[in-house]
Amino acid sequence: MLGWERGEFDEAVTDLFGFHAVQLGLEEVDALKVNRMPHRWLSVGDPQSSQIVKTHGRAVAFVSEFSALPFAANSLDLLVLPHTLELGSDPHACLREVERVLVPEGRVIITGLNPVSLWGFRQRRARWYLRAGFGDSYLPQQGDFIGYWRLRDWLRLLGFEVETSRFGCYRPSVRSQGWLDRFAWMDRLGRRWWPILGAVYFVVAVKKVRGVRLMGMPWKASTSRAGAPVSVANQSSQLSGEDV
Predict the structure, then answer these.
(1) Nearest-CA neighbor of 31 among 69, 78, 67, 75?
(2) What pLDDT is attached to residue 155?
(3) What pLDDT, in 10s, does the model give residues 77-106?
(4) What's the CA gap between 75 and 100, in Å, rounded?
(5) Would you give the end-to-end CA distance of the chain in angstroms?
(6) N or C: which end of the chain has fewer CB within 10 A?
């Protein structure tokens, strides 16, 4: 799953331009690795820690609640949320904060686990077993899966327009590499025959602001044109000898 997501992130962010980009959570994936914005930060949502730490070899720029980002409104060009919403305590507040800090025409990239998939079914089954008093959890217990269409509704209400959406990881999750290889045919056929049943979805959305039009940068200063001489009609003058 992480390998598929790394490829999708690299393809999506390589041609996104701007000045400021932030990744919220999941330090195992460097989602901004190939992006060329001059300022790129990684944030982890651990309010108990106030020092800069290193996780998985990456420096954490700041620690913050994702529902209260330390940025001014309309100040970021790109936000990446790898499984941030489903693992957070308040996904609605996080999305509202994303909408606040993004500039008009800024982009947010979201990945999440699809409840309508083999992985989602296995997670529900694991939770049934836990309620019965035996078994263990298949995926992390905190948070909950957010359906793809549910996420699209949330984005639409906040004024976002979904630009790209893809699904991946169709084979069942098993621990044996041999069985993973045997089920590889499901990834090839799934993208064509049952695309919305992938275990992971990948969404790129653009912030739209009504009445706002993005202007290009004035690379060359406009030069003022000199006024052309205008002839004055019906004007005669006689020069006297003294004037000469």
Answers:
(1) 78
(2) 95
(3) 999 999 999 888 889 999 999 999 999 999
(4) 9
(5) 95
(6) C
